[in-house]
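As described in the Methods, two query proteins were run sequentially through the folding procedure within a single session, without resetting any intermediate state between them. The first query and its resulting C-alpha cells are shown here.
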Amino acid sequence: MLVRQATLNDVQAITSLYKSHVDTWYDLNQQPVEYETLTLYERWRHGGPWYSLETCAVWLAHLLQENDAIPLVVELDGAVVGQAEVFIGKEPEPYGHHINISTLCVLKDAETEQVGEALVAYVEEMAAVTNCKRVTVANPKPPEFFEKLGYRSYMERYSVLIPAVEGHVFYKARELNDSSAQQIGGWFMPMGRFQNAREEWERMRWFIWNGIPPLVEGDWQGLTVELTGQPGILHLHQHRDNPTRVTVRLWTKNPVSSHMMMAVGDRVARMGYENMVTLVDSSARALLKDAEEISPSRWLYAKP
C-alpha cells in the first residue's frame, strides 16, 4: 500500500469512497431518492463536502493551499482505497504541538483495518518528523480501532446550552477582517473546540461555500473581542432551525477568564440571540454557572 498526499486528480476516487458507505440517499423531505436527483446541498447533508464531485473539488483545492492542512490517500494496486485529512495544531498544553486526524474513510469492503492502520501509521510518522508531541482524534468511531493502536481517552468536552445575558463588563468588539489562521497560532480555544483549534478556524471561512446558498444560510459573524490585556476572536453562526440560538467558537491569546465569558454572553445578547451552544472542557465549564449539558460528552483520544 502507498500513502501519499491527495491531489485534485483524486476527487472522483475520494467521492466514491464516501458514497460507498451510503445505502440509501434521502432528499430534504427525508424521502429515498436516486443520487443523481439530489442537489449539492442535499448530498452535503449526508456527511460533508466529500459526497459530490463539485464540493469535494472545492474543499480539496482549499486544503492544498494551506500549509497546516494535509489531505492524504492510500493506494492499493493503483486504486485509491482510503482517505484522511489532518490538521497540524499549535496550542498551549494539554494539546501542545500536535496533529489531529479529522477524517478517515476506507472504501467499503476493502481491508478496512489494514488501510486504516496504514493511514494512521503515516500520520504518526509525520508527527515524528514535524516534532509534534502527540496525534489526536476527536470522538473516534469506532473507538476500538484507535485503542488497538495505542490511543487513549485524553480530554472530555461538554456540549452546553448557555443563556445569552447582557453583562456589566467593558470590552471592544470589531468585525474581523483577516481570515488568516496564523493569527491563532499558540492560542487557546476555550469554546467550540471539537477537532482542534486550527481546523475549527475553517468555520471562519464560510465564504468559500457562497456558491451553495443553503450552506451559508443564517447570520455568520467573525469578531475581534478585547478586554484589557485579553484579546480574543469570536465566531458566531445562527442556527438554521432556531434563529434565536447561535453556535459559538472562541479563540483567546490567554487562558479564558470569567470576564471574557461574560463579554461573549453580552455580545451575543446585544445581537438579539437568546442562547448559545458550544463545546467546552472542564475548566471552561466551571466558569459557566448557568450552562446546561444538552448531549453526551465527547472525548478526544490521543497518542502517546
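Immediately afterward, the second query was submitted; its sequence and C-alpha cells are:
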Amino acid sequence: MKILLCEDNPADLEKAREQIEAAAETYPEESMLEICQTAEACRAYLKSEVPDLVFMDIFMAETSGVDLAREIRSLSTDAKIVFLTSSNEFAAESYEVGAMDYILKPPTQSQVKKVFENYMKTQKSQRRYILVKRGRDEVRIEEAGILYVRTIGNETSIHTKTGVIRAYYPLREIEKQLDVSRFLKVRKGLITSMDYIESMEGDYCVLKNGEEYAISRKNKSENRKKFYDYQFSQIERR
C-alpha cells in the first residue's frame, strides 16, 4: 500500500508520521510512506505515483489541501483521502472531494488505526473473486491475482501470482466471471489479464513470462484495439 503524507508544519509532520508508521505495522500488507512538505513536492510525486491512502494537511502554505485533494481525485477515484487540520472550517468542503475522514490535529493512535481499519474494510468490499469448481468443492480466487487462464484438453490451468490452480472446469464459465475491461480472450483456450501482456504485434501475443501465442484471426483487429485502448487508459491514470 502506498501512503502519502502531505504536511508543511515540521512539528505536525513528525507527530503524524509517528502515528501513521505505528498503525502501518499492524496492517497485513507491506506499506510505503512518502512524505511531502510542500504542494510542489506533492505534485511532483503525483506525476509518477498514485497513492492508495493520503493524509493531507488542509492548510498548506502554497495552496489548500482541498485543492491538492481534487488533483489526486482527478488521478484516482479509489485513493482514500484523510484530512488533517486544526479547524473544522473546511469540513463540509473536504467531503465534496470524497474524503474518507477528517481528523483534528494532532492525530491520536486510535484515530489513525481506525483509518487503517476502515481502509481495509473498503478494500475487502471492493475485491472481486471468481468461483471454480474442483470436484465437489468450490475454490474462491481473487481476480486481481489472476495472470492468465489456459485450457488444454479438459483441464483448465489458472495461473496466479502465487501459483497455478488446475481444475476440470469449462473456460467459458470462468470467462463469464472475469472483468471484460481487464481480461482479453486472445484465442480459443486462452484468456489473459491485459496487465500481463508484454506485447501484441503482428499475429502474436507475448506474455510477460515469455510465452508466445498466436492471436485468433477472427478477432485479431478487435483484440489489438482493445489492448491498445487499455494501455492508453492506464497511462492516463498515472
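The CA atoms of residues 16 and 107 lie 6 Å apart. We note this only descriptively and draw no conclusion about the first query from it.
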